[in-house]
Amino acid sequence: MTRLILFPHRRRGARRPPPARCPRRRPRSQLLRRPVPSRHRYAGSVPFDLRNQPVDRRSEAALAARGLGYRSVDPSDRAGLDAWAQADQRGFHHLRPTESDLEHERRIFAERRVHGVYDPTGAEPAIPVATISSWPTGLSMPGGRSVDAWAISSVTVAPTHRRRGIARAMVEAELRDAVEAGAAVAVLTVSEATIYGRFGFSPAARAATVVVDRRRAVWKGPDAPGRTHLVDPRSLRDAAPQIIRRAVARTPGEIDRWPVLLDRVLGLIDPESEGARRTRAIRYDDQHGETQGFVTYRITREPDRPGVLEFDFMAAATDDAERALWRALVEVDFIGSVRGTLRSVEEPLPWLLEDPRAVSVEEVLDHLWVRVLDPVAALGTRRYGVAGSLTLEVDDPLGHAAGTFELEVSNGGRAEVRRVEASEASPSSSRRSRRAGGIRLGVPELGAILLGDVRPSTLARAGRIGDAGALELADAMFATRKAPQLSIWF
Ligand SMILES: CC(C)(COP(=O)(O)OP(=O)(O)OC[C@H]1O[C@@H](n2cnc3c(N)ncnc32)[C@H](O)[C@@H]1OP(=O)(O)O)[C@@H](O)C(=O)NCCC(=O)NCCS
Question: Region labeled Disordered — which residues (predicted)?
């Protein structure tokens, strides 16, 4: 059977294009260029058929040696997918899914690759003892380009089978498949921050929970030129994907494909559920009447008490839209506080209010975790803060990203990146290496600085980056105009 090649221009063994001074927008694979067939899909999600792909042979053999079967779940096998979804829900300690939940899960997982580990000796052998899912996506980089990424989710192992290396077998298989498919990075969000560092992942975009004391929130920011409208969330189905796509492109750390996300955000999974009926939406149209953003929110309150307005998804394609939506939220009457989760750690809101202390940050979470697989592609796609030459010596126990890389950034902030081959000893290249200062780091640290979430010098203070004479330059180069942010869980 053929192996998985979703980003064919970048598959292992393929001739790499010569490094460009300003990297071109790399061609996307045919699979990634397919049109979006459903108006319900999130920001360009793409159907892809991975059902015929074999599971990773190494992990299959390792699990078979423990009496376990490692299998791909065919999304058209309804009973098999429902059993897998039961295990996934159980693994995260969720309620047993209702028929409507299962219906939603079937739609999500029809657009992902779904794998399970099965124990034929268990009491319920049709229900997997471990689950994992994945799909190809784009990850927004500083400067507005997108890099080919492999999103991983649904990692669960039944308590009866924990700590036997099942998660390790599945995650390492995903990383090998991601490399095979041509992804430059793997990405995930985590339940616990102690699990994925060992596989080379690192927090790369934090998320803040921002709370606004409504009584102190007096707007002093500029008026947006357009206007806001209260709308039925369902009316956003058509406009939302385009807005989300633009909002994602302007924010490093956002991913551009998450099947069926829109239904969740708009409260359409089970429209009769209490959560869905509580969901309200505000839309912002610019001065030309073009929709530029929306936010969905819920208000809960005790009888005769001001309510709490909570939101976890705002899509703003322009700064005007972002300001107007924040203003609409903090000016809702009969509200004690506004609570936004998965917000940027550099939210401009305090600068828009008379009393900046009306805004407090309740929590800052590591949120997006990144694992670099191909440093040339990952580093070459982003824009840098200043011009300069930097050598990065990357250590990677799994081997995918190990090597020495030369980063040459021009005045426009664009980079030329090249791997320095061990055998390379041309006088010009060694002269160039000597000229360039360097840093030494592990692959998790490379993921941590990639989107600008943490300064290299902060990691050096933590003893996690070795300075070979270029820390100050590295700080300036990796600095970004906008803090990275991921505004969804996956
Ligand atoms: C997290 C989980 C998938 C781990 O599965 P597992 O099969 O027990 O993990 P493994 O046996 O493959 O362990 C691999 C390594 O990770 C470590 N590890 C596993 N789970 C860990 C945890 N929760 N915290 C810290 N370390 C953990 C193991 O000690 C082992 O370390 P080592 O190889 O360096 O000695 C499982 O505990 C689980 O399902 N948890 C609940 C759901 C969840 O949180 N999933 C993660 C979603 S992001």
Answer: 1-29
Q: Which fold has domain 8-183?
A: Aminopeptidase (3.40.630)
Residues of the chain with CATH 3.40.630.30: 8-183, 208-368
Instruction: Select which of 7, 118, 196, 384 is catalytic.
Output: 196
- DSSP strand pairing (185-189 vs 146-157): parallel
Average of per-residue pLDDT across 401-412: 97
Residue 70: active-site member: no
Identify whether the C-beta of residue 121 lies closer than 8 Å to the C-beta of residue 128.
no
DSSP percent split of the chain into helix, strand, coil, nearest 5: 30, 30, 40
Ligand 1 proximity of 157 Cβ (cutoff 6 Å): yes
Residue 15 CB less than 6 A away from ligand 1: no
pLDDT given for residue 424 in this prediction: 67
Q: What is the pLDDT averaged over residues 15-27? A: 35
Q: Is any ligand 1 atom within 6 A of the Cβ of residue 92?
A: yes
**What 8-state DSSP symbol labels residue 164?**
S
CATH number of 208-368: 3.40.630.30
Q: Which atom of ligand 1 is nearest to the CA of 168?
A: 12
Q: How are strands ordered across the β-sheet holding 465-468?
A: 415-420, 403-409, 388-395, 437-442, 465-468
Say how many Å lie between the CA of residue 377 and the centre of ligand 1: 29
Per-residue burial over 52-65, b = 16 or more CB atoms within 10 Å of its CB, e = otherwise = ebebbeebbebbee
| 167 appears as a binding residue in the annotation | yes
Residue 158 alpha carbon to ligand 1 centre in Å: 11
Q: Which residue has the higher pLDDT, 153 or 49?
A: 153
Ligand 1 centre distance from Cα of residue 192 (Å): 9
For residue 432, pLDDT beyond 60 = no
Residue 162 near ligand 1, beta carbon < 6 Å: yes
The verdict on domain 370-478 having CATH code 2.160.10.10 is no
Radius of gyration of the CA atoms of the chain, in A? 23
